Amino acid sequence: MFVKGGKPDLFIFVAVIVLLSLGLVMVFSASSIMSLSEFSNPYHYVQRQTILALVGLVLMFILMKVDYRIFKPLALPGLVLSFVLLVLVLFIGKGTGGATRWIRLPGFNLQPSEVAKLIMVNYVAVYLSNKRENARKFLQGFLPILVITAGQFLLIMLEPDFGTGAALVFTVFVMLFVGGAHLGQFVSTIVVSLPVLIYIVSRKEYRVRRLFAFLDPWSDPTDTGWNVIQSLLAIGSGGLFGLGLGRSRQKFSYLPEHHTDFIFAILCEELGFLGGVSVLFLFFIIAWRGLRIAMRAPDLYGSLLAIGITSMIAFQAMLNIGVVSGSLPVTGIPLPFISHGGSSLLISLAGIGILLNISAQCRE
User: Fold this and answer.
1) Which residues lie below 8 Å from residue 131, measured CB to CB, with a gap of 6+?
2) Is the pLDDT of residue 212 over 90?
3) What is the mean pLDDT of the chain?
4) CA torsion sign, 206 to 211 to 215 to 217?
């Protein structure tokens, strides 16, 4: 059950610790004014994030030591649990900002869509490793995974949470491709899915307005274009070296979600271009070393699990930074290890723990 001998990947470990530490600093800097206004305590959000980070680190260290293969028999029960949670949140979930994404627990709000991502990574890794010969067959290999993924995506969209749903689909597609599915299966899936995606976007007016705002945010600067414009102002104001920690102007009620989804903009404003590039470099290290672990994993299950976890974290970071920089349409998704948020932080650290466990058993 416990792994002995090999050493976990030091590069990933250091990168995650640095990102986590930077995240705590930025959460305090970005949220202190709001915390003081709402709770008469400037440390409210950073205290909460610190507790969650410590819990996540304990979870990460435990999963570093526990053999990743123990999760194999949990694949199907985990998948059932994820569907139950995704349905349950629609009925008893906590709503905020027009979305119902959280189930309120004592002292903690659970986000089922975040849990579903890691569970799905494990399920796909088990499925493809057990049926490797069927990976290139549409009916026996590709279609069953596609149906399950579509079911989870639709449930997540009912919350709605397009960012997390997109991260789930992207991660599964990467795992299917690595597992042996051929390019034609992806092309045909995209062609068939495109009308459905267009319908999902077009049936809600705010999604259409967000899309047009992405193309030209200045066409509606006081509404749908507001977030992007304020985010770009924050990034541009930082210059090369930034305004200095705590000196952000955009956090004074200009930039919404400045301690969660748009915290990267505040980071660039206070730490400048060099700070933003440093964060990108740290995520690049995680992606690079994660791919290296996947190629050297002791078995196919470990390889697929590593590529799934790496893709999940890397794509979420890419999507968040793309939204914040105006390169992608606005959608709510946190920046791993840095944004304030419990479920995302815990799931990301749990994934890193499993990835480090695989790295400790890699072939030289």
Assistant:
1) 140, 141
2) no
3) 90
4) positive
Sign of the alpha-carbon dihedral angle for 290, 293, 295, 298? negative
Residue 30 domain flag:
yes
Amino acid at 134: N
For residues 87 and 127, the answer to whether their CB atoms sit within 8 Å is: no
pTM above 0.90, yes or no: yes
Would you say 330 and 214 are in contact if contact means Cβ atoms under 8 Å apart? yes
Residue pointed to by tokens 């749908």 = 224
Q: Is residue 287 part of a domain?
A: yes
Q: Residue written as tokens 């104001």?
A: 237
Q: Is-contact 64 360, C-beta < 8 A?
A: yes
Distances (CA, A) of 231 to 100, 254, 362: 25, 9, 41
In a domain, 181, yes or no: yes
> Tokens for 221?
């600067």
pLDDT tens-place string over residues 252-285:
878 888 889 999 999 999 999 999 999 999 999 9
- Reported for 291-299, long-range contacts at CB under 8 A and 24+ positions apart, including other chains, are 292/9, 293/9, 293/12, 293/355, 293/358, 293/359, 293/362, 294/178, 296/362, 296/363, 296/364, 297/358, 297/361, 297/362, 297/363, 298/358, 298/361, 298/362, 298/363, 299/129
- The number of domains in the chain is 1
CB 335 within 8 Å of CB 20 = no
Full residue range of the structural domain in which residue 242 is found = 10-359
The answer to the question of residue 364 being in a domain is no
DSSP string, 100-169: EEEEEETTEEE-HHHHHHHHHHHHHHHHHHHTGGGTT-IIIIIHHHHHHHHHHHHHHHTTT-HHHHHHHH
Distance CA 79, CA 50 (A): 30
Tell me the C-alpha distance between 247 and 245, whole Å: 6
Nearest one of 210, 214, 211, 320 to 262, comparing CA atoms: 320
